[in-house]
Design a protein that fits this description.
Length: 146
Amino acid sequence: MILKDYEKIKRGYAFGVPTHYNSFHIGLDLIVPKNTPVYAWADLEIVNSFLGKEGGNTAWIKVDGRPELVRLLHLNEPAKKGKYKKDVVIAKTGNTGLSTGPHLHQDVSINGKLELSNKKNFTDPEKYNREFNDQECKHCLTHCPK
């Protein structure tokens, strides 16, 4: 999972809700302290990493064999580009850019391209994250020792 104790983490703005700056939030805000480790939720690659005005330290991520582009915003430091195995720390949360407090913003572009004006190209990160969690749980039901 992207953050330890994911299900217990307090949520900020959810997908699709109006915010103080936009009528449709394209991602999910997970309220966690600065420097909380962010884990690779699958084998993945950080394909871009930069400091942006609004999102602060931002990482663009592609999961092996999947079409989506996942963005993580407000990271404490720039993430290092490269390939990562599942469960490895890939970044730490922060309070960069136009953030109003420490949190991790995650959004998921369905077609693998960042088209901010096309809201239909985004999916709910909660649904996306549950899909990976469910895969792990289904795997454990048949393969993991009890």
